[in-house]
Amino acid sequence: MYSRVKWLDYMTFVGETGSGHSVVMDGPPETGGRNLGVRPMEMLLMGMGGCTAFDIVMILKKSRQAVTDCIVELKAERAESDPKVFTKIHVHYVITGRTLSEKHVQRALKLSAEKYCSASIMLGETATVTHDYEIIEDESTR
Questions:
Q1: Same domain for 114 and 46?
Q2: What are the helix and strand counts (H, E) for the chain?
Q3: For position 41, what pLDDT does the model report?
Q4: pLDDT digit string (tens) for 13-69?
Q5: CATH assignment of the domain containing 18
């Protein structure tokens, strides 16, 4: 895996991935930024959400569950002093599907948290990570 981050100006940076994607990162005005992009720590938290969402959808599909949507909402607290690491992260899953088995959803969440989501497991070394979920029945006629 490879990434490259280049400083543009002020406190604006562009991150480029080895897979050919780019993202703009910036700081708030009080630190010299212009608020033109996501903060690096926000990106880290969002990356954790993407990592676990990927796991959940993949595990549920492999379990032949009719998952139609997965939203992961994350709230984090950071340490007061430097380094301002995450100290608490709460993950709320909103999983939608047709007749989803609660047992399968719980299993997917457990596997992601304890085995597959490298981002969650890594951040769990400095933060207390908690989870909850809700299952929504998809009433659409897709």
A1: yes
A2: 3, 6
A3: 96
A4: 999 999 999 999 999 999 999 999 999 999 999 999 999 999 999 999 999 999 999
A5: 2.20.25
56 and 68 co-located in one domain: yes
Residue 114 has what DSSP assignment?
I
pLDDT at 141: 64
* Residue from 133, 138, 141 nearest 69 by CA: 138
Residues 60 and 129 occupy one common structural domain: yes
Domain residues for the domain of 15 are 1-38
Question: How many structural domains does the chain have?
Answer: 2
Global pTM? 0.92
Nearest 5°: the CA angle 14, 16, 22 is 75
Tokens at 98, concatenated:
């047709």
For residue 88, count other CB atoms closer than 10 A to its CB.
Answer: 12
Residue owning tokens 């007749």: 99
**Model confidence pLDDT, tens digit, residues 48-57:** 999 999 999 9
Burial class (CB in 10 A: 0-12, 13-18, 19+), 137: exposed
